[in-house]
Amino acid sequence: MSSSATAPWKQILLNSISSNSHLKHSIYFQLATVGSNGRPSNRTVVFRGFQDGTDKIQINSDSRSRKIEDLKHCPFAEVCWYFTETWEQFRIHGRVDMIDASNSDPDKLRQREVAWFAGSVRSRLQYLGLTPGLPSLDEQPSNDSLDPSAGPVDAFCLLVLDPEKVDYLNLKSNERLAFSTGRSVNVFFVACWKPPTIQNILFGEYW
Amino acid sequence: MSSSATAPWKQILLNSISSNSHLKHSIYFQLATVGSNGRPSNRTVVFRGFQDGTDKIQINSDSRSRKIEDLKHCPFAEVCWYFTETWEQFRIHGRVDMIDASNSDPDKLRQREVAWFAGSVRSRLQYLGLTPGLPSLDEQPSNDSLDPSAGPVDAFCLLVLDPEKVDYLNLKSNERLAFSTGRSVNVFFVACWKPPTIQNILFGEYW
């Protein structure tokens, strides 16, 4: 979506984040990708904020992780973000830009650097660890240390999801909103769906 | 996985369900599928228990929903189930069997019937509603009623996920267990991974 216009769903999402902010897990969501074998993958990741001045969603990742492999095969992902306090679900579908050390765009490399320093030093240490996904045979924990002023290490990859479609569901009010954008014209089509016959929409049975 | 042997991850999952059972949302998880366009979909669904005597996971669905279309294209799905109280994540990958009214197997139709009656009458009413995924233009809510003793309606579809791989992560103990099964021999390979160097595995950056 355009960086110059704020998507109508963004304020709804910001409100949900705010209403649930007392819960540690409220910034966790599930990210689905497609592997090179054509099968789905799904894992919990941490919301790292919106890219400045845009509606794009940031996620930190290890370049060696399976999802990077998946995204190289298919650059689309779908977020499913359920807020347990307010009973709201956001499904956010879009293309993911992977910004790693090899990126040639100075602006993107700057974004990656900002994301790196936005994380705690402890969280940065993670990227010095073993190859993710492989069991460790080493009995001794490594004693990696990190200069807090040092920039991103090679394994640090910033993922930036650019939403194309957002499906919002509020299980308390029975409100459902579907947002989509024609990328060339940046027009949002907003459909407010009336509550179904029964008061509670049961999860996942309708869609 | 075989119906005659209990998978080693099942007891861990049952413990997690039990430890989090005071939270309404603890039986919700995210189900990722792949659409006919090759892109991922992701939505929250409700755990409807294990199929009797097996490790297979049951989910109720509307035959008209998007995920049924997805599963006809690619029968594999991945569950991501995060327990917010105990900080545990289960990623469960497997093939999904769709049991709808047209199924020719009497045993499967019986399972579908059992699943139908296991739901509340109110939840069953949902399947009499409008086509899912389409906005309603009708101002009047429909007055569908349902005989509580009536069997499953056409739109009711039981999904049964047969796990092939399970990845368990405990963020409190830093324990990670990977289970997989060779389907022909039904042997589980269990790998207990040592904690990484840092104490907290940050979500989704490693995998």
UniProtKB/TrEMBL annotation, chains A, B:
Pathway(s) this gene product operates in, as recorded in its UniProt entry: Cofactor metabolism; pyridoxal 5'-phosphate salvage; pyridoxal 5'-phosphate from pyridoxamine 5'-phosphate: step 1/1; Cofactor metabolism; pyridoxal 5'-phosphate salvage; pyridoxal 5'-phosphate from pyridoxine 5'-phosphate: step 1/1
Chain ranges of the Pyridoxamine 5'-phosphate oxidase Alr4036 family FMN-binding domain: 7-99
UniProt protein name: pyridoxal 5'-phosphate synthase
Coiled coil: none
Cofactor requirements of the protein: FMN
TM helices/strands, residue ranges: none
GO biological process: pyridoxine biosynthetic process
Key words of the record: Flavoprotein, FMN, Oxidoreductase
